[in-house]
Amino acid sequence: MANNDLTNPGTRAIVTAEVRAVLLKHGAPSSLMDEILDRISIRWVHNESFLRLKDDEGSSITIDDYVLNRKTDPKYAKQFTKSDPPRISASDQEGLHARFEDIALGKVIVGDE
Fold first, then answer.
1. Residues in CB range of 90: below 8 A, 6 or more apart
2. CA angle at residue 76 from 86 to 53, to 5 degrees?
3. Per-residue pLDDT averaged across 30-51, rounded?
4. Which residues contact 4 (CB under 8 A, 6 or more apart)?
5. Is the whole model's pTM more than 0.70, yes or no?
């Protein structure tokens, strides 16, 4: 990992969960996990943290942007599956409760679009 803050097991678990959610959201192969974790770092602005990683050109980009860039990479393109996870309405209280864990893992998106 690119940042010393990620040596803490709790921090690593949180970052790994965030990366996993992005991979699921884009239908990306799990083989990208290690590649992303090797490049990722935690940045701080006004006491707010956010995650960034270096792309192949050395630019600082979001996890989403990195995954989307890999979608066109011949090495990974065929490994991508569906592009969007299922959605559940924000007003569906029973459904939200029943799918809470899947929502937390990024397997289900809450929204009415």
1. 96, 110, 111, 112
2. 85
3. 90
4. none
5. no
